[in-house]
Write a structure and sequence with these properties.
alpha/beta, Rossmann fold, 10 helices, 11 strands, THF_DH/CycHdrlase, methenyltetrahydrofolate cyclohydrolase activity, one-carbon metabolism
Length: about 300
């Protein structure tokens, strides 16, 4: 069993991006600028956005963090997004989800300029991804692809089972694993809450990608020997022994499943760190695309 070490791989990617930024500076170019927009005071969201800002500093990007109160109206948020769309200093920006209930998430995602949508959530970018065109791939699926590629995990002709059909991970992952090229060229089964006999399907899988958010859902008896397991789930589970009062747990019963795997991602330290690294990579791509358009 080999760990797919997202923490180490993300650090490697950040070093590569930092070297790229140094080249840009040496040539007198403008360094990439990533903005993050957060509405409200959700603890997990604030931590995550803070990590993104630190990552920008680490690689030499400029970053802007915009905080808006939880009482912000949809109109106010859309106005702020319009400002970011029109700000020529900013290469890419993200709107941190979830949003307060008074705001239509879909309307907000649609309002982001696709050329600055480094999260890859805009329908235009999703469509381009599905058609194998150059675009922003959502950061978490992009991170999974990068892990598979850098560890040389064979995907061609394999049976990939994706558990969960969210627009952020499951749905794009099912498209990407079936695309031509590497990683890809696998036969994909997309499972969800209405799928019958999931265990029967997962035991036939060469690669399992689970993004359910149900702690320890995937058990050893659901996995065949030699399978590759990618755990996207991150759930805080109450734990009185831990000083924080909780532990971070994935979708996979790691202790038992890891004994049967050829490759597996840990939680934490697997897919999570890769998401932020790939957001930086998308921001670098946004800058390159702007230069190509002579903007």
């Amino acid at each position: 069993m080999q760990l797919l070490d997202g923490k180490k791989t993300a650090e490697d990617i950040k070093c590569e991006i930092a070297a790229e930024v140094e080249k840009i500076k040496a040539q007198g170019g403008k360094v990439p600028h990533l903005a993050a927009l957060i509405v409200g005071n959700d603890g997990a969201s604030l931590t995550y956005v803070g990590s993104k800002v630190k990552a920008c500093e680490r690689v030499g990007f400029e970053s802007t963090l915009i905080k808006m109160p939880s009482t912000t109206s949809e109109t106010e948020l859309l106005k702020k997004i319009k400002e970011l769309n029109e700000n020529s200093e900013i290469d890419g920006f993200i709107v941190q989800l979830p949003l307060p209930e008074q705001i239509d998430e879909q309307k907000v995602l649609m309002a982001v300029d696709p050329r600055k949508d480094v999260d890859g959530f805009h329908p235009e970018n999703f469509g381009k991804m599905a058609l194998d065109m150059t675009t922003f791939i959502p950061a978490t699926p992009f991170g999974i692809l990068e892990l598979l590629e850098r560890y040389g995990v064979e995907t061609q002709g394999k049976h990939t089972v994706v558990i969960g059909r969210s627009h952020i991970v499951g749905r794009p992952m099912s498209i990407l694993m079936g695309r031509k090229g590497f990683p890809g060229n696998s036969t994909v089964t997309l499972t969800h809450s209405y799928t019958k006999n999931i265990a029967q399907i997962t035991t036939q899988a060469d690669i399992i990608i689970t993004a359910l958010g149900v702690p320890n859902y995937l058990k050893a008896e659901m996995v065949k020997d030699g399978a590759v397991v990618i755990d996207v789930g991150i759930t805080r589970v109450a734990d009185d022994i831990n000083p924080k009062g909780y532990v971070i747990t994935g979708d996979v019963d790691f202790e038992n499943v890891s004994k049967k795997c050829s490759f597996i991602t840990p939680v934490p330290g697997g897919v999570g760190p890769m998401t932020i690294a790939m957001l930086l990579k998308n921001t670098l791509l946004a800058r390159e695309m702007r230069i190509a358009r002579n903007e």
